[in-house]
Design brief:
Distance between the termini: 91 Å
Strand content: 25-35%
Radius of gyration: 21 Å
Helix content: 10-25%
Shape: elongated
Order of helices and strands: EEHEEEEHE
Largest sheet: 5 strands, mixed
Structural class: alpha/beta
Number of helices: 2
Number of strands: 7
Strand order of the largest sheet: 1-2-5-4-3
Length: 167
């Protein structure tokens, strides 16, 4: 007679700030806790990384964050899914403007590889230990990161012909 497996549960993550946003759990780890939180959630049945993106809060510094979490200009937002628990959790990691870098989670969620490259390409957030951190959307010789709020908008000069004559 075999014993039934214990139902999966969310891991206890002492010392990690958390909040509930519209009924969804949001973790706010410190940079040194980020990989530990990702690994603990992976082991607790959050088997799919459905999204990873960068956010630039240059013009919105006063956003709501849990007590003890200092707002930074950049944020890496990770969405993880658990099919066993039928729920989603979010990880919001604050990334400093002075050193926009955080650890890569490719070794835990291989599907995050392209998403991290996109965040690097568009925002300039460096994912340390990433296997191939190269541009994915912009040409290799492109200067800057187009989704940064301080990036000047592109402009193509338009040459108009003379106004048409009477009809």
């Amino acid at each position: 007679m075999s014993e039934a497996a214990a139902p999966p549960t969310r891991p206890e993550l002492p010392g990690v700030a958390r909040a509930s946003v519209r009924g969804q759990l949001v973790y706010h780890p410190r940079p040194e806790q980020y990989l530990e939180v990702v690994q603990a959630l992976r082991e607790a049945s959050f088997v799919m990384c459905s999204d990873l993106c960068g956010v630039d809060y240059l013009r919105h510094p006063g956003r709501e964050l849990p007590e003890g979490v200092s707002p930074e200009r950049f944020e890496v937002v990770v969405q993880l899914l658990s099919f066993d628990l039928a729920e989603r959790v979010t990880i919001r990691l604050q990334v400093a403007e002075s050193a926009p870098a955080c650890p890569s989670i490719c070794h835990v969620y291989p599907g995050a590889e392209a998403m991290e490259r996109e965040a690097f390409d568009m925002f300039g957030i460096v994912f340390t230990d990433h296997p191939d951190l190269t541009r994915i959307l912009m040409p290799e010789d492109w200067e800057g990161h187009p989704l940064r709020k301080d990036y000047s908008p592109g402009r193509v000069p338009v040459q108009f012909k003379e106004a048409p004559g009477p009809r």
